[in-house]
Amino acid sequence: MSPAGRVDPYPTYERLRAHGPVVQAGPVFYVVTGYAEADAILRDARFGVMDDALRDQFMPGWRESPAVLSISRSMLRTNPPDHSRMRRLAAGAFTPRRIAAMRGVVEAQADALVDAMLAAGRGGAPVDFMAAFAYPLPVGVICALLGVPAADRPLFRRWATDLTGVLEPEITPDELAVADRGAAELRAYFTDLVAARRRVPTDDLTTALVQAHDADGERLSGDELLANLIVLLVAGFETTTNLLGNGLVALLGHPAAAAALREHPEFAPGYVDELLRYDSPVQLTSRMSTASSRHGGVDLPPESWIIVMLGAANRDPGRFPESARFDPWRPQVHPLSFGAGPHYCLGAALARLEAQVAFPLLLRRLPELALAGRPERRVRLTLRGFATLPVAPGREAAPVTVAGPPPGAAGPTP
């Protein structure tokens, strides 16, 4: 929980792992570092997220916190059947067919952002990759899905940064006040957007959720409507922003691997999975046990609080040999960065698509791309990423042209 531990948690993970894949850290408190154990617990119906009764026990007065209320009323922090009901209402926007159809939009947005980076970096000036590319690409995509006007998109970075402090496993009263401020801003924004969509419906996810609420309040309550819009927005870009920043630093630190991806963009899916494993944008999640179970040789009684360390599980040497090494050629990576089981990230395929487009494009168009200073990590553990990432774009690659055969030349021999 120290600032140094949050900035670089991996040494602590290994010290925890030495005690076993599941470690008891208190009377009802357990930490999971093993891949197999983390995967099993996330899929086990005997484990759920913290419900209202437990929040009453651990956080008296939580209903007075806009941040806690916004998270707790969303699909992120609810159990079946409420979780299943809310997830179904949003799932239509994230089908494989719809995600595949968005590739052209993602490519066009990424190209435009590289153009802007080149202009900003002309003459060798450093560019903050997080502000210039890693944030605007995913926020533009998720805002398009939600129907958020382009002019409003710059507002969300600070609001989301403030709100997501509430996802940390430990938060001070001052940090909670900051999270509440961000949540209040987001709730006010989406209250206005919901009213606008009632007046003029459009073809977007916000309109679909508003209509579900208005048609039958049992399908989606008013608090659930606002909470899920906030979580869809924040989760839709926070994790991808961090994936892009963490991934770029990893690639720049491994020039041979970067060169291979530059020449072979078709390798991008394997690279992205390894980047997710190597430095996960989401480092942990939590579960509460509802019944006795046994995982990793440890008995877990009812009402145990389990911290599932996704970042540690992704570096479990029992699952990934030489786990501290970045290796995009690993077979069957299957990182746990997006979770597993009922709460598997709804937007995982969209995040993967954005990264699979972004990294080959950046490496191809900006072959001289390099760090231009010391990156600054956010002092967060749950959502791991950079606050600033200065880069020098360098010169753009020359356009590749393929000359045709000279007049009268013979064609290729079959």
Structure overview:
The protein is built from 18 helices and 12 strands. The protein is of the alpha+beta class and 414 residues long. It has a domain at 3-7 and 52-286 and 347-392: Cytochrome p450 (Orthogonal Bundle), CATH 1.10.630.10. A hairpin with an 8-residue loop joins strand 10 (376-377) and strand 11. Helix 8 (103-120) packs across helix 18 (348-365) and helix 11 packs across helix 12 (173-199). It is globular and about 60 Å long.
**Order of secondary-structure elements:** HHEEHEHHHHHEHHHHHHHHEEEEHHEEEE
The strand order across the widest sheet is 1-2-8-5-3
Query: How many strands in all?
Result: 12
The radius of gyration computed from the alpha-carbon positions, rounded to a whole number of angstroms, is 22 Å
The global form is globular
Helix content range of the residues, please? Answer: 40-55%
Q: And the CATH topology of the domain at 3-7 and 52-286 and 347-392?
A: Cytochrome p450
How many angstroms does the end-to-end distance come to? 65 Å
CATH superfamily of the domain at 3-7 and 52-286 and 347-392: Cytochrome P450
Strand coverage percent: 5-15%
Overall mean pLDDT score?
92
What's the tally of helices? 18
